[in-house]
Write a structure and sequence with these properties.
The protein has seven helices and no strands. The protein has helices at 2-7, 10-34, 41-62, 66-89, 96-113, 117-133, 137-154. The longest helix has 25 residues, at 10-34.
Length: 155
């Protein structure tokens, strides 16, 4: 109901989108700081995609403006980048391209043994969502190709 009011004013809609972005960024960054899934790419990707989907679903259902959806996307990208740079400053290893490459390797291995097509598609969707937020796509490509090469050689 309130989005009907916001819909009429472009300036108000943009200011609200900016506030949404700052809020989602702050909450997401705190969530990432508190996340205790080191060494588990599956748990990490599952956790961040679930958090993203909570925000995205809320915005999509309650105030479906493109500006608000873009604000959620930009906030998640910013919070993941900020979290990664904080981890690097603290000499903790957290490289989004490496985590995603390991996750993809895991879902491809599991995909062979899993007969549940829906679950496989959901895992692939999660990988695609995280890939959207990875800055170093070239690094991901190199790491992923190494995993692929190992998998092919081991057959």
């Amino acid at each position: 109901a309130i989005y009907k009011l916001i819909e009429q004013f472009d300036d108000l809609r943009q200011k609200t989108a900016d506030k949404i972005q700052r809020h989602v960024e702050s909450v997401s960054f705190e969530f990432l700081k508190d996340l205790k899934v080191r060494g588990s790419p599956v748990a990490f990707v599952d956790a961040i995609t679930n958090k993203h989907n909570n925000f995205y679903t809320f915005i999509k259902n309650h105030c479906p403006f493109d500006e608000f959806i873009s604000a959620v996307d930009q906030a998640f990208k910013n919070s993941l980048q900020q979290h990664e740079s904080e981890q690097i400053k603290q000499n903790k290893v957290l490289c989004m391209p490496a985590i995603l490459a390991k996750y993809c390797e895991h879902i491809l291995k599991k995909g062979k043994s899993s007969s549940d097509e829906t679950a496989n598609e959901q895992r692939q969707d999660k990988a695609a969502l995280v890939f959207k937020y990875v800055d170093d796509k070239d690094v991901f490509g190199k790491l992923y190709s190494q995993y692929l090469m190992r998998r092919l050689v081991s057959k």
